[in-house]
Specification:
mainly alpha
């Protein structure tokens, strides 16, 4: 079985960058990673404690609703109300995603139709230049 579409995709740029960093470190170079949000400080202890607590709770041993946890959607709607004066319905106007790229992809699927032209700002996520 051959998958032709995937052969046209270039290597993921962050994989290339990670390989270059590994090579430089192996060569004894002092690499300062100014990459995409990889902290070099330990997580706050309270955050680690809460993560462990959540991981040990059997209620969290399953997938969340595809639209995200209702309490989290409500918290985002509340944040927008207090910070920006914007009323959002957490059931119809708020969705949780696993990251910015997923959120931006969903937004484009909603707003753009086949044949539309889209301006992509720079800097942007490297994968955006390969969108159909």
């Amino acid at each position: 079985m051959e998958f032709r579409r995937i052969t046209g995709l270039p290597p993921y740029v962050f994989t290339i960058i990670d390989s270059l960093k590994v090579e430089a470190r192996r060569a004894g170079e002092d690499v300062i990673d100014l990459g995409f949000g990889n902290p070099d400080l330990p997580s706050p202890e309270i955050a680690v404690e809460k993560l462990v607590e959540a991981a040990q709770n059997p209620r969290n041993h399953r997938y969340s609703a595809s639209r995200g946890l209702p309490k989290l959607r409500e918290a985002f709607a509340d944040l927008y109300k207090h910070r920006f004066g914007v009323d959002l319905d957490p059931d119809t106007e708020v969705i949780n995603t696993i990251g910015a790229k997923e959120g931006l992809s969903h937004l484009m699927w909603v707003l753009c139709q086949s044949g539309d032209s889209v301006l992509v700002p720079a800097p942007s996520y490297p994968i955006h230049i390969f969108a159909p």
